[in-house]
Amino acid sequence: MSIISHDIAQAITLLNTDDVVAIPTETVYGLAGNIYSEQAIKKIFAVKKRPLFNPLIVHVATIAQAEALVLGFPEKAQKLAQAFWPGSLTLILKKKPTVPDLITAGKDSVALRIPNHPVTLELLNRLDFPLAAPSANPFGSISPTQASHVNDYFKDAINMVLDGGTCTNGLESTIIGFENDEAVVYRLGSIALEEIIAVIGNVTIKNTKDSAPLAPGMLSRHYAPSTKTYLVDDVALFIANHAGKKIGVITHDQQVTATPLLVLKRLSQTANLKEAAAVLYSTMHELDRLKLDLIVAQRFPDYGMGKSINDRLERATKTN
Ligand code: TXA
Ligand code: MG
Description:
alpha/beta; binds threonylcarbamoyladenylate
């Protein structure tokens, strides 16, 4: 029997009895559990093979529920929440002692967001507790943007994937914290930097291992296919230099001549960066299944979603 289902009532039953359920969001699928259930949270870490030092994002249905978990809500955080919630923005705020340390990996802060997906909003509204949910993939691999991706990863290690269709944004949330009241971007994501700046003015970016040793998700290698993957400016040149190899090619505007050895994937027919972000991971999943020799991606323009896409491609191609 497939574990993929549309049955919200069944998801509620599982979550109410300390089990985990994969849930749809507009960014990527998450692997969710009751933040107050030690059993559920431990299962999330175990199923993902995620190190315990890497904290989880807490998902709530309303700003009031977010406020109930934190000591304070700085003005800039309020502006961002007003502008982007429900949506693909995660805020890191000082936590109340009632938020379990297992969720936050012992940190004094908690990551919070209201996801913008009708199925998961209904689920959250019908539960008595918030849901901790990291992306529903084994640690370090590509995040799932379809229920089938989650099923392929975890099979019978979990009891249910709540099907909410294909994730519309397709890239994880943008993560923002505050240092001395200044906003700091810890992860580029589905809300473009320009959109953030339009609401609160300039921000600092600390999204590398060196600049943000306290945000472990910024590990350099992440989001990686099992096929060796490269990021270049000129894919035609790369292909010419790798004659005889079976190559999966991810482009946005470059024209590449088809040959029997190439699998060509143009992420957006109109060079639309949001459209490209939405299908990036599903394209990487698809190419990874083909057992090619190499995957090569063309670097995107360094603005809007292009910046977030490049961040993921850089981490996917790192070797350490
Ligand atoms: O779009 C998303 O954010 C998805 C969906 C499911 O909501 N979730 C997601 O979770 O991407 P995950 O666990 O794959 O990434 C969460 C990131 C990690 O890099 C983690 O280190 C960081 O958030 N994080 C969580 N709590 C933190 C905290 N208190 N301080 C700093 N970083 C934190
Ligand atoms: Mg993740």
